[in-house]
């Protein structure tokens, strides 16, 4: 048997190093053609991890000799798991989208602990994603590849929800292994109805599903019988709920996970108030032996069709305007910072409390909004709107799926989590975000101004780039079309990073030492003699001073 090519081995090694411990912290939303303003399909993904360095990975299309093998390493730990056979040809992949506009994201739900390990298994969730992107052209084919690989080589991970989109359809696939002594996984996949959106965030979401509708639902033959054999389910096939049997929802599943889905839905649809208690972790049962009765629906219809910027906005949320608003409690401090340093739970006087787990979080390696458009040739139709660090303060730049080069700012090896790089977007965006946390409610407005200006420009320019690239493509100049979109994506990403670095310098000058420099007509003010004008000294809000007095009494009182 021949080993995988050197290029594949290197790419695999890079993947395992930069994706360590991505699981258990991600958020996905899924948008069908009928729910989008332009008829595209979209999925989102935030790769949240305290040890993930944000980069954009590229795998060129390759031909492999007969008998070639590919090494598989567990995505979260780098542990070598084994080898699988290579097909004769694999497709090019940019990030989480391949050359046919197929995009895949994920969130880990864990599920029953007794199903979390499987001796001899090779395919973990991360490897399933990137191997499948090299082998499948459509969402339906991706489901067949992913489930087929798990059946043939064994499923190594715990429970996982996958978002899968091609230019025409959007599917959710949920999978969990069979545990020790078994091989493969039980799973179910459902197509999101056209005109609807869905989402998942580390809690299994598929409950009951149709058993005789293969156009809209496919599942493992033993998905129900396996649960019966284990004694986990005794009801009818009709009432079988994948999530409630294999990953029952609890307080954490509702408050830390499904609450994020609720928050995203709440931004685009009325009527989500009736699920507020559930988002707060209050789980209701009509009967003590029944499944949870107040869970979120798997999909909803948005109040209006969503643009790509609407979907970006869904990824930018700290529960603002709801009972879980992270800017409103004392933990936000005087400048309404919507972040809480980990852990997720904490204890006072033997009572356990929690921080909220919002969609936007500080420990994000990268996030994206994928856009697949069936009216354009594949290398042009697929766009991965890609950003690094915190989704709330990132800037999404269009990376066409047909590009053949990665921008320097996103390049693998341009710095890492312990090595600062002047040309790395990840470090540039982290500098701006972490400085912004110091005086958040003021500084985030400056960040959002630049963010909106850049993203508005990208959204305006993309149709023009589409048209020019499509003209080349239709003339048979396919490679020139790919070179054109590559040059555009590379230039915009690098220029965006340069502008973000200038934003960081501006913020440092403006907010240095807790003061705020005076500005007029976009320039910092000077006196008639050219000296810097005296800055503003905004101090703290009155309610904060009152909290200090309440806690310290007369300690700071000025004596008469």
TrEMBL record:
Keywords from the named record: Dipeptidase, Hydrolase, Protease
Enzyme Commission number: 3.4.-.-
GO molecular function, one term: dipeptidase activity
GO BP term, pick one: proteolysis
Coiled coil: none
Pfam families, sorted: Peptidase_C69 (PF03577)
Reaction(s) this enzyme catalyzes, per UniProt: an L-aminoacyl-L-amino acid + H2O = 2 an L-alpha-amino acid
Gene3D superfamilies, per database record: Penicillin V Acylase, Chain A
InterPro entries in the record: Peptidase_C69
Domain of life: Bacteria
Protein family per UniProt: Belongs to the peptidase C69 family.
Stored PANTHER family: LD30995P (PTHR12994:SF17), SECERNIN (PTHR12994)
Protein name in the entry: Dipeptidase
């Amino acid at each position: 048997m021949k080993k995988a090519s050197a290029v594949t081995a290197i790419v695999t090694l890079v993947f395992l190093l930069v994706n360590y411990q991505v699981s258990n912290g991600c958020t996905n939303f899924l948008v069908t053609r009928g729910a989008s303003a332009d008829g595209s399909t979209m999925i989102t993904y935030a790769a949240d991890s305290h040890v993930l360095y944000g980069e954009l990975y590229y795998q060129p299309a390759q031909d492999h000799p007969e008998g070639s093998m590919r090494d598989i390493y567990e995505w979260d730990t780098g542990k070598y798991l084994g080898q699988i056979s290579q097909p004769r040809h694999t497709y090019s992949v940019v990030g989480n989208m391949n050359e046919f506009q197929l995009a895949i994201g994920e969130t880990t739900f864990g599920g029953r602990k007794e199903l979390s390990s499987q001796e001899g298994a090779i395919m973990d969730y991360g490897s399933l994603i990137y191997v499948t992107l090299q082998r499948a052209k459509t969402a339906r084919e991706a489901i067949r590849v992913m489930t087929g690989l798990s059946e043939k080589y064994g499923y190594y991970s715990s429970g996982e929800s996958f978002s899968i989109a091609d230019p025409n359809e959007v599917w959710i696939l949920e999978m969990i292994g069979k545990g020790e002594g078994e091989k493969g996984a039980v799973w179910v996949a459902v197509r999101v109805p056209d005109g609807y959106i869905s989402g998942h965030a580390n809690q299994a979401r598929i409950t009951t599903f149709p058993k005789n509708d293969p156009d809209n639902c496919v599942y493992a033959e033993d998905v129900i019988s396996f649960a019966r054999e284990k004694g986990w389910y005794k009801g009818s096939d009709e009432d079988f709920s994948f999530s409630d049997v294999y990953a029952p929802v609890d307080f954490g599943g509702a408050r830390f996970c499904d609450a994020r889905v609720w928050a995203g839905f709440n931004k685009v649809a009325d009527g989500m108030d009736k699920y507020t208690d559930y988002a707060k972790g209050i789980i209701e049962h009509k009967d003590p032996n029944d499944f949870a009765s107040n869970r979120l629906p798997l999909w909803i219809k948005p109040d209006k069709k969503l643009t790509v910027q609407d979907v970006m906005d869904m990824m930018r949320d700290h529960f603002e305007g709801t009972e879980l608003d992270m800017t409103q409690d004392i933990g936000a401090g005087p400048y309404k910072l919507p972040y809480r340093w980990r852990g997720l739970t904490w204890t006072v006087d033997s009572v356990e409390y929690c921080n909220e787990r919002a969609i936007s979080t500080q420990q994000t390696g990268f996030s994206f909004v994928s856009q697949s458009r069936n009216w354009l040739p594949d290398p042009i139709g697929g766009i991965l709107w890609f950003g690094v660090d915190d989704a709330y303060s990132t800037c999404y730049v269009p990376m066409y799926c047909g590009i053949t080069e990665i921008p320097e700012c996103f390049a693998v090896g341009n710095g890492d989590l312990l090595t600062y790089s002047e040309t790395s977007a990840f470090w540039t965006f982290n500098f701006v975000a972490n400085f912004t946390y110091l005086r958040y409610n003021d500084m985030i407005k400056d960040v959002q101004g630049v963010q909106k200006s850049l993203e508005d420009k990208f959204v305006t320019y993309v149709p023009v780039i589409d048209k020019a690239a499509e003209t080349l493509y239709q003339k048979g100049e396919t490679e020139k079309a790919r070179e054109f979109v590559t040059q555009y994506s590379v230039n915009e990403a690098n220029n965006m990073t340069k502008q973000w670095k200038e934003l960081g310098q501006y913020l440092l000058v403006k907010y240095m030492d807790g003061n705020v420099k005076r500005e007029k007509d976009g320039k910092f003010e000077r006196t008639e003699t050219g000296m810097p004008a005296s800055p503003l000294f905004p101090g703290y809000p009155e309610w904060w001073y009152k909290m200090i007095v309440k806690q310290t009494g007369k300690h700071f009182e000025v004596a008469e």
